[in-house]
Amino acid sequence: MEIKKPRLSFWQIFNMNVGFLGIQYSFGLQQTAINPIFLYLGAPEEMLPILNIAGPVTGLLVQPIIGAMSDKTWSNRWGRRKPYFLIGALLGSLCLFAFPHSPVLWFAVGLLWILDAGNNMAMEPYRAFVGDKLPEKQLSLGFQMQSLFVGAGILLANGSIVLFQYLFGGDSVEVAGTIPQWLYYSFYIGAFLSLTTILWSVFKTPEIPPSKEELADINAIKALPLKKRISQPFAEIAEAIKQMPKFMWKIGAVYLFQWYALFIYWQFTTPLFKLTLGYSTSEAASQAAKMSLTYNIVTMVVALALVPLTLRFGGKKVYALSLVGTAIALFTIPFISDPMLVLVPMVLFGIGWAAMMGIPYTMVSKIVPQDRRGVYMGILNMMIVIPMFIQTLTFGPIYKYILGGSAVNAMLFAGVFFIIAAFLAFRLNEKKTIVNN
């Protein structure tokens, strides 16, 4: 039975997405601050990819399982998706507080595994949450609003790194095996925002109760023996993959190259600026944060502007052209030696990031059934983490033996992958193939 969803106001959609701010602040720290911490604690550059394997592995395991579980959850008090992103946010908050106190490399790596598990547990149901609440005509606004908060969260994370490095890090002397104190404060802010922004959305946004048919299905699963209840999410994932629309396989091909390239960018901006600008690790980390700050400001500005563009020209055209722009940015960055001019390509990167964080989710949300939205959003996020997993295993040797251990070559390699992703995005067929309920 189809549940008629009421049209929400702009501020209702805003409130339901506030929690994404804290989640993305945490991801912003992962993009910019985690790899410098690994370098501070003595990790060689060629080990950075494999040290980041926590993200793809936890995403691969956590997101689809949590998505399938949240599809079959209902609590009159807490709802369907909220329990999961609330627990995930609490776990992430505790890890962010502990992270800058890591005494040795293995401790920081272990914390990254727990932090990523918490972030993935919070993020996946949030994607489904938006799809649950909004009628189809408002899906584009809902997911681009999430894109805006992606930009805002990462902007605040990187802005705090730049600010605290400027205020407290200028005269500090780097000590091998020690994380500088100026970096602590960004993590403390993240620990606070991770939990409080989720609580805002939890208390401001009620969930839509399931239909009688959905509730009967949920209660039937609750009545199963424990062993079958544990295996149920895995069976649900396998069945969903078997029935997955062809469009999602095509998105997976785009994501293979897009996310492989993004992981290269995040891992090697700090080493790049040590090479091209002659910076210390702290200075290079601050410059990488400025890059992220710039592109996320652009993301915030253009995220909602992409809504009418996608409605007029189609999502795949806007998406594909944005990937071309991102490639141009990566081809340009290694050859600019001025710390201010090197921020200019981030305009193109920011437009691309806004499109990547909104358009594919809008496309997929329109073609998957309502009662399986959680598991399909989890599978879509599997398509993000699988390329990341491949990158963490393969790029270290590529970087060392094929690219000559050069961060410049790494950035150009990523640019080529964005061009391939853009070509594949132009081949996406946006025709609706599955009608929701």
TrEMBL record:
Gene3D superfamilies attached to this UniProt entry: MFS general substrate transporter like domains
TM region(s), chain numbering: 47-70, 82-99, 147-167, 182-203, 247-268, 288-311, 318-336, 342-363, 375-395, 401-426
GO MF: transmembrane transporter activity
Major facilitator superfamily (MFS) profile domain ranges (all copies): 12-433
Coiled-coil spans in chain: none
Keywords: Membrane, Transmembrane, Transmembrane helix, Transport
Mode of membrane association: Multi-pass membrane protein
An example Gene Ontology CC term for this record: membrane
Subcellular location(s) of the protein: Membrane
Pfam family, one: MFS_1
Entry superkingdom: Bacteria
Entry keyword annotation includes Electron transport: no
Annotated InterPro entries: MFS, MFS_dom, MFS_trans_sf
Name this polypeptide is given: Maltose/moltooligosaccharide transporter
Native organism: Olleya aquimaris
